[in-house]
Amino acid sequence: MKTVWLGLLIVSSALLIGVVLRQKLSWQWTKRFALHLVAAAVALYLLNYSGVISGYSVPLNPMTIGTVVLLGLPGIALILGLQTVVL
Description:
Keywords: Membrane, Transmembrane, Transmembrane helix. The chain is mainly alpha-helical. Helix content is 83%, strand content 0%. It has 4 helices and no strands. Helix 2 packs across helix 3 and helix 3 packs across helix 4.
């Protein structure tokens, strides 16, 4: 059964890559997403190590970076607010 799921994953990934490579619009979207991803990671890194927010530390992991990519600065505020409520 694992072989079937692995085969399905490989085939669907190859088809998705084929669709992305064929479309010009996909390249623009991919470049923009990569730029936002790098900008979010750099922003979180600078925020953690600049000392602007003392007492808080936002971890650099896919969930926090994804939140900041999707929401921008409100995403950082959301993460800090969740840390305040949970901790």
